[in-house]
């Protein structure tokens, strides 16, 4: 099936439209079924994906507005493949474990539309199509936070929307400018990212364009100091909203850096290593400290998720294969682990309608299964060896060590601080005597919840022990990208810093 | 003895007049029919108007490109044809909105439809000439009819709106006449093509700088009134509020298309002659207009007033394209209106279906935000469609206005004005707030319980128009390509 990507993008949208007709009581089952089909399709994509090929696969190209250079252009490589699989997986598990009871049908329809936009972002190879899905993803999220959120939901939803919308409009101007340069050089209009890769831009253009794209992506990541919308969004969003937001939407920002900023502006990226690394380290340490100060369990997870996004950012700007592959792998790991953690918080919130840690204590004795899964996810989040979190974090730190040992050590403190606040959450909530009367009668995980978590736990352990099936395709594409960046860089400084790994002859041929 | 003047009918090339004549004759026909039988229902006149507009559309499509006619005052170039097509299509969208389920008395007068057709003819004359006197005549014909149409919506603030618009319009007309007079004094002609030739030979004469500036300033003030540009925009929200909702939506599009067509001719001439001052002035007006109008829209409590300010802001956005003086810029103006038309008329029509004869929600406003609270529970389809219109206006892809915005922003980047594109982007971000505000009310708030339904005025023709507008808004991506190539071809063929 050559057009599997189109099917992957539009199946959820079509299902969303048809979902309006489905009866209220059956809406939930409908959502799960569609998400499961979508997940199986994405697995099929993985199976039929040629892991030795570092280039774009399953490419579809249909001119949409030829006079303006916009085409419907999709494709997937090692970097985006697993983000697509992770998106469909987290959507499936999110819908399956959803505890919302009112307006379930609207929620399911919204989630399916959201899934379309998320998959679309990761497979789009045309900047306008990318932008289209990128902006469109804001609307369902706005509705999810605004309709099912906490007391401040409208404020949080609008803040989320406007913040991201503003950043991406600046990015849009950047895109238009690249298209303009491309037109000047070649005489043809094109928004295809692969065409843009061929452009060698002067340094000052690179810097300005890097800044324009940076604003769009950094707000989404969210980089310090643009992170202020995220705690509100997480604080107010329903569990399912937080899961999707943390697992997938934030990855769009980091994916944007890999897809656009690095290969298009290699010199500017090298020049920006230090500023971005400094911002990321501030982000890692500062938000980790803020996380430690939180009383609300969900806010701890929210801030820790921002803190870990900092690690992803650092790895990306290591400019070597370990760093970037590690960072892409960390995106997957962060998606699964932080998604699971938000679901776990949701479980206890459904039972007690509070997320304050002071309300809990001694839960390990009452809810052993819950405590066990929470423990595993928490360890994976901290980066314990043999869990998924370790692989990415380790590769990132190894990669960045080549750039700056001092900054690597600073970033490495995140593991320590992370352990501190995570374990303190665990201690406060799960150990010690059961102080509150209400907690004594809490039910452990229901089968529905348990079966949502088991696949995630399995993945966390599997990829922690044996990451190769995932890491290798990522690595292939990353190496090809690095070789390409090195070839394209115009300053000697950039050529020195971008480490070209030994690339197999095959991968070179593809690029 | 005077020689008898001999004019051959051939040289008049009367076919260039055919579209306007169709509209004028149609208007007269309606008046005659009313004389013969005064008891005909409004649906008869609505359908008759539609048919006349259809003939008008056919006549416009049948015009040959770049034809002059009628003593050379008519000029049917690409700008003229494209803007006439837009005017007619917008009018055809507007007309069925008269078929509301409740009786609003203005539509029971056949004169309403006759005036409407005279107005369309006036706008067509305005865009299809480069003779400043004919432009002026067209402008006044259209404006006088429009004032009356506003006043026919029989309410105290409609009269206020009509009088306000009339006063401002008279002022603008005065400026236009004076500007034309100065241009005539400068060049000895009121035909823009000839004026450009004369000016080109005299532009280096330093003694004339002040006069050239004077003529451009006066004409710009006149056009700024019509386009509701800052600081001449103050009439617009009050007039839109006073007029009936569909007419307000119509006013945000058609008179502005006509005024833009004239502006392209006049200011394009100045910019081509190298009067940089005009370009800078237009840029300044455009940026200030889109920003101020956006900020004003943020604080409005009434949806209709918000939409009024938003359409001012859109006009500012489009005005910036005029300053680029590139084919893309000029094409962008018409492309933007072609896309904006459906969304904007759709949004105003959604207000129209919720129009009550007395104010039920608020003592001051007809359409306060509270009225739309919880619309998703009352009228789910309506809420979704209105939300689509709002997202489109905010420039969210892939809805129609996004393509217009991106085209004009690209034109600005191509013209080397990256800062302008950034200002446009940031303004779109600001505007997203007030469009979202309505979405938040519709989707995330509970309905105000103690008032009856909001879809008071709904009827099948209204649903059809709104449905058409929604389809055009959502499916824009599929027709943008032919639209761009057609508009671009027409504009470049007429030499802009």
Provide an overview of this structure.
The complex is a heterodimer of chains A (511) and B (496). Chain A is mainly alpha-helical and 511 residues long. Chain A has a domain at 272-465. Helices cover 74% and strands 3% of the residues of chain A. In chain A, strands 1-2 form a two-stranded antiparallel sheet. In chain A, β1 (57-65) and β2 form a beta hairpin. In chain A, α3 crosses α21. Mean pLDDT of chain A is 89; it is low at 505-511. Chain B has one domain. Chain B is built from 21 helices and two strands. Chain B has a two-stranded antiparallel sheet with strand order 1-2. In chain B, α15 runs antiparallel to α17. Chain B is globular. Chain B starts with 8 loop residues before the first helix and ends with a helix. Classes of the chains: A mainly alpha (511), B mainly alpha (496).
- How many structural domains does the protein architecture of chain B include? 1
Strand order of the largest sheet of chain A: 1-2
End-to-end distance of chain A, in Å?
23 Å
Please report the two chains with the greatest interface, counting residues with C-beta closer than 8 angstroms to the partner's C-beta: A-B, 33 and 33 residues
Gross morphology of chain A? globular
Uncertain regions spanning at least 5 consecutive residues of chain A:
505-511
Q: Quick check: average pLDDT of chain A?
A: 89
SS-based class of chain B:
mainly alpha
Q: Helical content of chain B, roughly?
A: over 70%
- State the total count of DSSP E strands of chain B: 2
Radius of gyration of chain A: 22 Å
Largest sheet of chain B: 2 strands, antiparallel
Strand content of chain B: under 5%
Order of helices and strands of chain A: HHEEHHHHHHHHHHHHHHHHHHHHH
Principal-axis shape of chain B equals: globular
């Amino acid at each position: 099936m050559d057009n599997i990507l189109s099917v992957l993008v539009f199946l959820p949208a079509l299902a969303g439209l048809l979902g309006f007709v489905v009866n209220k009581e059956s809406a939930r089952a409908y959502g799960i079924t569609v998400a499961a089909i979508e997940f199986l399709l994405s697995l099929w994509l993985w199976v039929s994906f040629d892991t030795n090929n570092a280039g774009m696969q399953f490419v579809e190209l249909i001119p949409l507005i030829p006079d303006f250079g916009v085409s419907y252009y999709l494709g997937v490589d090692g970097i985006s493949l697993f983000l697509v699989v992770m998106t469909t997986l987290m959507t499936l598990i999110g819908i399956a474990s959803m505890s919302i009871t009112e307006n379930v049908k609207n929620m399911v329809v919204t989630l399916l539309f959201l899934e379309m936009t998320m998959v679309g972002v990761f497979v789009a190879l045309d900047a306008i199509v990318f932008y289209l899905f990128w902006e469109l993803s804001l609307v369902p999220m706005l509705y999810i936070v605004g309709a099912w959120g906490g007391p401040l939901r409208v404020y949080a939803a609008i803040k989320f929307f406007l913040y991201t919308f503003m950043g991406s409009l600046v990015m849009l101007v950047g895109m238009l400018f690249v298209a303009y340069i491309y037109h000047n050089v070649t005489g043809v209009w094109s928004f295809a990212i692969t065409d843009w890769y061929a452009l060698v831009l002067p340094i000052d253009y690179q810097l300005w364009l890097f800044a324009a794209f940076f604003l769009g992506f950094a707000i989404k990541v969210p980089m310090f100091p643009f992170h202020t919308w995220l705690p509100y969004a997480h604080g107010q969003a329903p569990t399912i909203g937080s899961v999707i937001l943390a697992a997938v939407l934030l990855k769009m920002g980091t994916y944007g850096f890999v897809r656009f900023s690095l290969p298009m502006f290699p010199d500017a990226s090298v020049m920006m290593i230090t500023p971005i690394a400094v911002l990321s380290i501030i982000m890692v340490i500062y938000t980790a400290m803020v996380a430690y100060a939180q009383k609300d369990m969900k806010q701890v997870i929210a801030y820790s998720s921002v803190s870990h996004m900092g690690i992803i950012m650092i790895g990306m700007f290591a400019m070597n294969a370990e760093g970037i592959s590690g960072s892409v792998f960390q995106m997957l790991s962060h998606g699964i682990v932080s998604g699971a953690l938000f679901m776990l918080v949701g479980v206890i919130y459904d039972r007690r309608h509070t997320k304050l840690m002071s309300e809990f204590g001694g839960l390990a004795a009452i809810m052993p299964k819950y405590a066990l899964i929470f423990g595993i996810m928490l360890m994976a989040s901290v980066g314990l060896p043999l869990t998924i979190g370790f692989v990415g974090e380790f590769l990132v730190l190894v990669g960045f060590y080549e750039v700056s040992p001092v900054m690597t050590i600073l970033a490495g403190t995140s593991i320590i601080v992370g352990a501190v606040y995570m374990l303190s959450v665990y201690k406060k909530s799960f150990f010690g005597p059961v102080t509150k009367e209400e907690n004594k009668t809490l039910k452990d995980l229901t089968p529905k919840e348990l079966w949502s978590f088991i696949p995630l736990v399995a993945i966390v352990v599997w990829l922690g022990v044996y990451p190769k099936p995932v890491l290798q395709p990522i690595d292939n594409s990353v190496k090809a990208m690095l070789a390409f960046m090195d070839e394209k860089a115009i300053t000697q400084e950039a050529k020195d810093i971008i480490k070209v790994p030994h690339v197999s002859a095959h991968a070179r041929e593809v690029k | 003895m005077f020689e008898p003047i001999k004019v051959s009918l051939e040289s008049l090339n009367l076919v260039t007049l055919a579209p306007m004549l169709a509209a004028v004759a149609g208007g007269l026909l309606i008046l005659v029919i009313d004389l013969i039988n005064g008891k005909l229902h409004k649906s008869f006149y609505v359908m008759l108007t539609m048919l006349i507009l259809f003939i008008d559309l056919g006549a416009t499509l049948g015009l040959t490109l770049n034809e002059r006619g009628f003593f050379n005052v008519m000029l049917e170039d690409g700008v003229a044809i494209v803007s006439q097509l837009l005017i007619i299509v917008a009018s055809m969208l507007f007309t069925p909105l008269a078929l509301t389920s409740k009786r609003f008395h203005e539509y029971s007068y056949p004169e309403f439809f006759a005036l409407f057709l005279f107005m369309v003819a006036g706008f067509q004359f305005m865009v299809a000439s480069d003779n400043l006197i004919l432009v002026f005549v067209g402008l006044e014909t259209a404006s006088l009819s429009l004032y009356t149409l506003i006043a026919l919506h029989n309410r105290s603030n409609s009269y206020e709106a009509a009088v306000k618009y009339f006063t401002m319009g008279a002022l603008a007309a005065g400026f236009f006449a004076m500007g034309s007079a100065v241009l005539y004094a400068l060049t000895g002609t009121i035909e823009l093509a000839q004026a450009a030739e004369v000016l080109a030979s005299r532009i280096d004469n330093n003694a004339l700088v002040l006069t050239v500036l004077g003529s451009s300033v006066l004409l710009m003030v006149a056009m700024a009134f019509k386009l509701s540009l800052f600081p001449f925009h103050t009439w617009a929200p009050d007039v839109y509020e006073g007029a009936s909702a569909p007419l307000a939506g119509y006013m945000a599009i058609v008179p502005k298309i006509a005024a833009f067509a004239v502006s392209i001719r006049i200011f394009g001439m100045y910019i081509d002659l190298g009067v940089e001052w005009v370009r800078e002035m237009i840029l300044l007006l455009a940026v200030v207009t889109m920003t101020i109008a956006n900020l004003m829209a943020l604080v409005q409590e009434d949806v209709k007033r918000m939409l009024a300010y938003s359409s001012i802001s859109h006009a500012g956005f489009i005005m910036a394209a005029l300053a680029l003086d590139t084919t893309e810029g000029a094409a962008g103006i018409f492309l933007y209106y072609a896309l904006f038309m459906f969304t904007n008329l759709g949004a105003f029509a959604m207000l129209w279906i919720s129009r009550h004869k007395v104010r039920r929600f608020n003592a001051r406003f007809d359409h306060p935000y509270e009225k739309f609270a919880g619309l998703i529970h009352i009228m789910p389809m309506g809420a979704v469609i209105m939300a689509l219109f709002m997202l489109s206006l905010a420039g969210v892809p892939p809805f129609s206005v996004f393509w217009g915005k991106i085209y004009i922003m690209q034109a600005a980047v191509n013209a080397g004005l990256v800062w302008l594109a950034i200002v446009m982007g940031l303004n779109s971000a600001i505007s997203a707030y007030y469009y979202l505000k309505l979405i938040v009310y519709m989707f995330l708030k509970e309905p105000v319980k103690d008032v009856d339904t909001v879809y008071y005025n709904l009827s099948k023709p209204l649903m059809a128009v709104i449905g058409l507008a929604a389809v055009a808004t959502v499916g824009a991506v599929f027709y943008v390509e032919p639209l761009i190539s057609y508009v671009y071809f027409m504009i470049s063929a007429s030499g802009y």
